[in-house]
Amino acid sequence: MAETFNEMVDQGHVREAYRNLEKWQNDMPADLRAMKQNEAEALFRRVGITFAVYGEGGDPERLIPFDMFPRVFTASEWRKLDRGIRQRAAALNAFLADVYDQREIVRAGRVPEHLITHNEAFEKAVVGFRPPRNVWSHIVGIDLVRTGPDQFYVLEDNCRTPSGVSYMLQNREIMMRMFPNLFVENRIAPVDNYADTLRKTLASVAPQKCDRDPTVVILTPGQFNSAYYEHSFLADLMGVELVEGQDLFVEGDFCWMRTTEGPKKVDVIYRRIDDAFIDPLCFRPDSMLGVPGLMNVYRSGGVTICSAPGAGVADDKAIYTFVPEMIRFYLGEAPILENVPTWQCAKADECKYVLENLSELVVKEVHGSGGYGMLVGPKADKATIEAFRAKIEERPWNYIAQPTLALSACPTFVEEGVAPRHVDLRPYCLVGEKIELVPGGLTRVALKEGSLVVNSSQGGGVKDTWVLAE
Amino acid sequence: MLSRTASHLYWMARYLERAETTARLLQMGGRNALLPDIGGGYRNDWEAVLQALGQLEAFREKYSDPNQRNVETFLFFDSSNPASVMSCIANARENARVVRTALTSQVWDAINTSFQEMQEFHRTERSKLLLNDMTDWALRAGALIRGAISGTQLRDDGYRFIGLGYTVERADNTARLLDVKYYVLLPSLSYVGSALDQTQWATLLRSMQAHRAFVWSYKGEITAAKIADLLILNRQFPRSLLSATQESVDHLEALSRGYKQPSRAATVARGLLGEIAELSVEDIFDEGLHQFLLRFMRRNDQIAAAVQATYLSGVPE
Q: Is A389 in a helix, a strand, or coil?
């Protein structure tokens, strides 16, 4: 494994972008730090920013650990990321439009058809359909890791309903409240126009039939969903209703919500439920979360669903390999952000290589998420590796493998003071009439020393993410 | 506004009002327990407190002895008792949490902080908790939340549904307490006007935090007629049946105006208001206090049912 890139320190010297923070950290006595840390936690609890974990015992309302040490990008670093992310979001949408239309990319022999048609996220019900502005994934979360001064890799794309943006916004709020001076000393690009941009993005994809200011709603599975806080937070910031399936019904060619003044027509649904639950008539008949008949209204242009059902076909780990190809094919551009080299266990020769090098690779399930069901070779013992080997041999198509990346590390407050911990980054790209990206994202940090797993379900925390203004 | 949102706001307020009722009753019981009993020792009115809340049966199923400690546990902390302060605050908070977007951050903060403090109480060693501190805290929390609502919520339809939750529940609670005093606490009618009767009326006033109000408004001796006047007909007393009903009417009329749509709920409420506004204490005693209160509670329930049908079900009538 290559040496870890330290985002703050370069051969003993603190990088320019982190100078003020180094002073801030050195000037902060331990007791003040502890006090601030408690204050931050109290603020999170008080505002109610928790994520729910049910069925594991203990307090169902948990806090994601918040690390006060910000992560910093310089303006020039961000410029490259910004271009790369927008490019990727555009290509993924072009791919989705093509998948459900003529499949030019398949005809051109660039992407094998079975990866599309045999994909669980592929949605027959929308083949031939063209959503407003031909946008399929309106909120694209792109997970990035850094391994060197100029080296970023895309770890995965999230085209369905990426979560976590509320942490990006709240981490900033809390840092501004606790350390206002930091924001005087550093010129930090604001992120608080995210909600407004999201609302405009959603309104810009209202159906053509909508002839007035569009009514936008957020559709949530309900308060027991782990991201419920985020759903209500976004609804509040955008000033739109947060609805559950039971609040909506279909009549005529439109979708309506039940209000105290009678039915009100809904034009755009930002859904935070999975495809399978959107419409029990079209998908899972046992779904209590969705709205019967919604898909018919969608397909006849009575309502827009964001992201489009079927958008997941662009973001699984097998399709991922082809995103650079999509960028070249649809946009005629060279990819700005690189993919992590990936071996498909579905291919015999690549699978052979993976099985021979398990102790050095990270192996993931094609459809897995949340850091579950994966093998981190260099951190695993022999028995774990052998158990995983059996799983791969049994269902090779279910796995991909990647080299273990030396994730960059950021200074992080730990028991003994400040120490580097591995981080990743998820920016949120908005696609509607325009492609928009607020300067920042969610930085997740693996709080355990040496750990590379940043998922909150596995002991990860979050940080405020700064992009310095020019 | 979403019907479901309105429904959560309405129920949030009902639970908040109920939490205060329970806390007031506990406070009253704690005070009574300090008074010497005529037959020696101290009085034990805890069963009466349980009865006032309609919880005596439920209590007996779980506890054998109606001593203070058990009653405190049952009415303050027991989450299996839907009328306990803890259950009410937890339910109010759960309703608030679901519709947080319809509340100002001050209101949510007041409710959520109360809930956190409640849990803190629950974790504290019981020997370190004084009943008075607990009930004072609950009443203060209630006042804080009400203050945040009145000081920061937009006077929109959501505000009206919160208001309705409070007033419908308050009317019910006042009627219930009054009825329990008259029908249940008094062992037999021959006690009317006796010393025991006097103490119980005073107790009832305290449970409504109305003792001072009574003294200022009526002076002199406590009589059943004066008390009935205060708790049923007095427009100045905020928890009287007339005041609560008047407020329900105000909220419903504001809703009809705002929605530019007359509603059956407002008609039902106006009907009840018109009836009791015309009454005198004599009329009520002629009908029989118990009969009157039963009739009132039924009518109050009809308002609640009409609110449900008109606004909260999402299917307009």
A: helix
